Amino acid sequence: xxxxxxxxxxxxxxxxxxxxxxxxxxxxxxxxxxKTKGVxxxxxxxxxxxxxxxxxxxxxxxxxxxxxxxLTRITYDGFTGYGEAAMPPYxxxxxxxxxxxxxxxxxxxxxxxxxxxxxxxxEKIDSIATNNCAAKASIDIALHDIVxxxxxxxxxxxxxxxxxxxxxxSFTVGLASHDEVLKKAKEADAExxxxxxxxxxxxxxxxxxxDTIREVTNTTICIDANQxxxxxxxxxxxxxxxxxxxxxxxxxxxxxxxxxxxxxxTERSPLPIMADEACQRLSDVKKLHGYYTGINIKLMxxxxxxxxxxxxxxxxALNMKLMIGCMTETSVAIAAGAQIAPVCEWTDLDGxxxxxxxxxxxxxxxxxxxxxxxxxGLGLTMNKGVNLQFKAEE
Length: 394
Ligand code: MG
Prior knowledge:
The chain has 14 helices and 15 strands. The two termini are 34 Å apart. Helix 4 (118-126) packs antiparallel against helix 5 (133-151). 40% of the residues lie in helices and 21% in strands.
C-alpha cells in the first residue's frame, strides 16, 4: 500500500508539473468542462455527434454517408479526459443504446475513488449489461485519457512501446467504380500508405479492383474480404493469385463461423490470415489460435484500451500477429488506437481521415506511418470552432 500511495503522490506531482509547463494545452482540453479541481469524483458526461463522411462509403453489403458517434467526457480533480463510441449500423449499437448505457454507468463510476483503477472499473462497467462494446469503450478511452494526463505521459510510453516501430498505416479503398478506385489508389500512394482493399464480391469484380490499382501503383496491398469467400478452395485460389500482386495479408477471408475451413486455409495460404469479425474480445483470442495467423484489434469491439492491451499480451504469448483497426471514428478513438500501433505488424487507423467534421487533433501520419502524439494521455486538442455540448442524466 505504501508503494502505491507513494506512486499516486508522485503521479500527482508530475501532473501538477505538466499543468505549469503547458497551461494552453490544459486550457484547450478543458473548454466548457465543469471546474473540478479538488473534486475527487469521477464525473461522466456525453454528447451525441454525427460524423459526416467525406465520401459515401461502400463495403460488402452496405453504403452510408454518416456514422453515429457518442463522445464522452470524464472530469476528475481538475483533469478532463475524452472518449468515444463509434457505432457503424452493422454493429447493432445506436445513439439511444449508448446513452442508455452511459446513464447506467454514470453512478457506477462515482463509486470509485480514483480513475487509476481502470481494470477494476472496466470489470464493473462490463458487468452492467452484455454487448454495448462501443459504449463501454467510450468510458475506457476517457479513463485512459485522464489517467495518462494525471501521470503526465502518453500510454504508449507508460506501456514501454517504441513509437519508431509503428508500421505503415493502410488507407482503405472501398468497393467503387474503376475511375474512383484509380483516384483513391493514387491518393493513398501519394501519402505513402499501404492500400487496403475490400474484396468479397464476384471474382471478376475482385480481380478488377486489384488490376485497376496495379495500373497506377505497386504499393503493398492489404486485403479485407469481410467474410466474403464461402468456399475454402476458391479462397485459396484467390489468395494464390493475390500473392502474385504484392499483397501482404488477408483479413477475414471466410465467414467467422467457418473456423475449421479457415484453419485449413491458413495452413495452406502463402499470406498471413487475420481475424477481424471472428475476433471481438479477449476471450476470442485463444479460440482463434491455430486457425488464424493473427488478430485485428478494434477498440469498439473489445471495450477499449484496457482489454486491447490484454489481447496484445495474449496474442504475443501465442505468437500470433497483431493489427489494430478502427471504425469511422474521430481523432479521439484513433488517438487511443495509435497507442497500440508500435506493437502491431499492420495499422489500419484511417477512420478520422474519412470524416469531414473531426472535432479533435492528436496522432498524425508521418511518411505513411501512424505516430501517436507525444503528449500526456491521448494528446488530444479540440479543433477550433468545435462546440460540443456535454451533459449527463441519470
Ligand atoms: Mg475488417
